[in-house]
Amino acid sequence: MIEIHCIGPTTVSIDGADPPPELLWRKHLALLVYLAYSKRSRGRDHLIGLLWPEKDDAKARHSLNEALRVIRRVAGEALVTDANQVRLDASAVRCVAEGVELGSGEFMEGFTLPDAPGFEDWVAARREQQRAAALEQLAESAEASINVCDLGAARVFASRALELEPLHERTIRALMRTHALEGARAQALQTYEGFRGRLNDELGIAPDAATQDLAHTVGAERVVRGAPATVAASRELVPIVGPGRKCLASCLSFWRDTVAGAPSLIVLRGDPGTGKTRVGDELAARARLDGAIVAQVRVLQDDTPARVWSAMLRGGLSVPELGGAAPQVLAGLAQYDPDILVRFPSASAGRDGDSGDRPFVQAVFAVAESRPVLLVLDDAGRADPEVIDDIGAIVQRAGEARVCALLSASAGPGAAALDALGQQAGRGVNGSIVKTGLFDTDDVVELVRWAFPDYNEE
After folding, report:
1. How many other C-beta atoms are found inside a 10 Å radius of the C-beta of residue 18?
2. pLDDT tens profile 81-115
3. CA separation for the pair 414, 250 (Å, rounded)
4. pTM assigned to the model
């Protein structure tokens, strides 16, 4: 087996041993690498023009034949040749791209053939492909770290990507999201402004719409973390591990379905202290960064339906988009929040009319016409069954409205209604019952490694 390492300085091994010295001659090595990366046969005339353009035809063919003779000594029958074509059987060669995901070296680093411009162009193209792949992998790693709340790792991946390309827009968005989720709103906006200035100075263009929308969302202070106000913004949140990581991944998947136009219902069940509130907080924070309207409420003991709806309105649903609801619906909402009459004057016109069935349900639909909506009801087991039924009605009647509901609970008077609603998730309604759980040993070790990077396992 021929093994070629081309990220960083190029090295070759044959069945784990050093190759014959003549294989490492520059033109011989260049031909080996080129054939190894080719997906098809190459014509002899093409190879001559690529590597020996400065020689006359007879001398160039002699040089090609000599290089093929050296390669055949290590490749054997895997080197297939005829009068016009040459190829290297892929089963006999392994091209290793270690380090590409970290951008730790370029393709054939330091290797040049000044008298073979065609080969130089091919190497330059491979380097650009490798660099682009590294950038995408680093950006994906940053986004994946954000999704499991490992914001420290997200910053590291983003920094490595921006070292390769300071104007990589996907990475800029990942870094802005990281700062925003940490509560560092000013730093997120500073990252955007610095990027916008460099983009204008160097390329004369503006950031794309997705980046501008994210900056607007952060700048409008729509991003509100679920963490207590006593937690300093600079304090790094503990990453989610184990069952919590799987729960958040499932919730984010259903949220993406919602943004794409499929209403979703998530019933989050688990024992007290297993991370249900944290998962809801993290989903809400990410939905806000997506420009969504988020209403997030924790149900208290003996809360009436009216108190829950009032909390939902004050907790995020009383937005300008609510003005699109019918006057009768707005008037019906005023029983939960009298400020509705002040904020939306059209509500007064509907006071003498019938607000219809479930004004809160109609209000959610009105809001969802403009932006995606996420409803988070924590400790939903304490809720009156009427509340559970209304939220179920919202998702079931949503049609194409972009509405997602997350209800979490351990136990309580509404648990039976919640279980009945959960049975519909994944059947008549897009969604699922998602369960939290306890840490196992590997989860604890992961947390220790995060908290104490120099921890000695022994």
Report:
1. 11
2. 888 899 998 888 888 764 445 455 788 888 999 99
3. 23
4. 0.72
